[in-house]
Amino acid sequence: MDYQRRQRSVIPYIVLIALALTAAFFVYKSGRRRAVAGIGEPVQTAEKGHIDRTIGEWKLSIDYDYAYDIEALVIHTKDYPETDIGGKLAPRDLALAWGSVAAYNEVIDFHWGQSNRWYHWSADSYEEIAPVALKGMDAATSISLQSANNHIIAADNSVKNTIKKIRKGDHVHLKGYLVNISGTASGGKTFSWNSSTTRTDTGGGSCEVFYVTFAQILH
Description:
27% of the residues lie in helices and 39% in strands. It is built from six helices and nine strands.
């Protein structure tokens, strides 16, 4: 009887440990919401170049007019299946924020999301997002000026492995190029993907198509 009582008393601890491990794995997998203050705007500089890449039957021409250097807070991530050329080329999108959006991301309950190669956000009230407003601008416009969705194309396996490790809440530093892509495949199939080259646009075509040559998780 004593053994049975001891055995029964151990079971709740095992359950608690299992729940704790499950919660820890979920946090690792999905990340966490946090804020990082003092992140400046992305740096974009004129620099022309060209890269050829072959993926399966696709012959891709990757052109760029700008180098891109961004330090940012990861506010959301989204993985896409590698079932088409877009997914094979850029299997992960990163929604990134800087400035006051990154600084207030923990205080403000932003509802960030990503789907169909878009990112989106909402908040419970206009008053809640008021602190992120830039001088002379409303808060909603300020959010769009200080966040962006990025289609991430890894330049090599080392960069690809780092990109895979990035989670929501990470403070990251990425460098590379904003690119325009055209491709052809057998049967007359074509593919094109053009990057936004400004932080002020919204809607269709406003995502950055980002060929990343350097990726670092700062903390």
